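Supplementary Methods, section 5.1.

A reviewer requested that the exact input to the structure prediction be made available. We therefore reproduce it here, unchanged from the version used in the analyses.
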Amino acid sequence: MKLLNRLTVFLLLFAILLAACGAPEAPAAAEAPAAESESEEMGTTEDYLNASREETVILDRTSPLQGSDNWNPYVRGSAVGWGYTEFSDVLTLLNYGSGEIENWLAESLTPNEDHSVWTLKLREGITWQDGTPFTADDIIFSTELQMNNDALGQHFAYQEWIESVEKVDDLTVIYNLKKSNVRFKLERFSDNICGVDYFVPKHIWEDVEDPATFKNFDLEKGLPMGTGPYKLAKVTENETIWVRNDNWWAAEIGLKKLPEPKKLVMSYTGTEEVRLATAIEDDYDGLHDITFGSFQALVAQNPNWIAFQDEMPFVWPDPCARSLTVNNSIEPWNDKDMRWVLNYVMDRQQIIDIAYEGTSIMGPYPFPLYPSMQKFADLVPTETIAKFTQPNVAAAEEILLAKGYEKSGDYWEKDGEELSLEIQVYEGISELERVADVFAEQLQRFGINAVKVNLIGGTWVEYLDTGNYETQSGWQTCGSIVEPWNTLRTLRADEVPPQGERHQLPHSNRFRWHNAEFTELVDQISELGWDDPLLFELTARALEIYYDEIPAIPTAQSKKLVPFNTTYWTNWPTIDNYYQRPVIWCPSFVGILPEIESTSK
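The structure derived from this sequence is encoded token-by-token as follows.
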């Protein structure tokens, strides 16, 4: 079944992503010109803290700053999403526009024939921001630190995949895997879906007594320390301020241009209305996702703002399909029939028309409808998809009556207890708030007393991880862009953790759902290349189980209307200039920084 008619033109850009995982590495970058004239002296931290508005990029945050004194990239609840993630160097970087994986810190990262051994060669000349060389020792230290401590970062992923890491020389590391993994480079290091494995400086962290409680925050000592083009200089109540590292190794060796902005600011100003007013006054250069109506108001009052597309629907197709995340371990939603009630009530077209103002399409799939994923979408029978494209209130009523529910007044009841539902939403993500508003109203009309509850980001994540929720408006099946495993693995589990205990992939999942056959299928798929005919057979069966059980209920294909301001800076990524994905909250943003240009020159 095809649902691409309204987004086909720009989604076709993603067809070349088919080659991203197995294709040869991108050719070495041409030598980059210096950003500043050789006669210009390097600025001090104080100089750049006092940089003018014309020399500053200000980026929007949608929720208040939490954990401002914790910049440990390996623990939950830290502030790394306020610049550390977005302004740090990456080992390799997937370019959504070209479909190539660009080498960054890595000179190369190549597998043996069966993808069970990967050899990393680092570039020469990489340094930490204090001038210490970045070497294989840092890679091995960071990897083994997480392998040996179950409270840190990627411990469980490494436990599943990595047997050992070996140093060959100062610039060469060998990853010995426990099993074949064709996706290792893409999955771990390339910012496939807004995340990479972090490396920390061994010469600092090797003296840390407890890395799980270490906050990695001391501005006078240069912490948090990275290798990137910006370093943290100041933290206020709802702002982080970063200043340019003029000694950035990538500019020194001619790999990248030294970025022109002298100062970067991450700033939270309040609700979408306040953020919009701030943007109109040119006090933002990049915004998080806003609604179509807000974008219309923005450009009407400040025409210097642009979107990814210059005409309807204006949006960039986000790789994370939207879903209603269901806690499958609590009553009554541990009964798949009751989950089907929620699905039958959901009017997805109304969600598109109201929540998305017509800028997206229905989402009966747990993955994005990129052209590269269409062949997997086609594995789902048309009659199955039909159950997700039209509401079926009669079918929902039939299930409830069979379960012993009766309609009493406005709501369905059983044993004197009203049927209700709480939908938790990450406060400040207007797209998900609006989806929850529309669906809650649909449920209310049907007779389920649904309420939307806004939660601050850290609390929302904590509740999701520990199972302290009924449902959430979210994106938790996010992962696949070229093949199905990354999405299917989000539902893999060996067990359902007790309520209140954290989920931990691959052993358990956020949906607290376990199906032994599904898990076995996902494990088999994990070792297959995406040209293997068996991949399609196993995926078809896994999707059959998914659509029978619906542990997560797909709602919509996501869109992102992410505006950029051209008053002070130009050359932002657009559909006609697609050198990097146009988002300000992922590691890929470091790929934008050397490219934007000042309008004052």
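The radius of gyration is 24 Å. These observations are discussed further in the main text.
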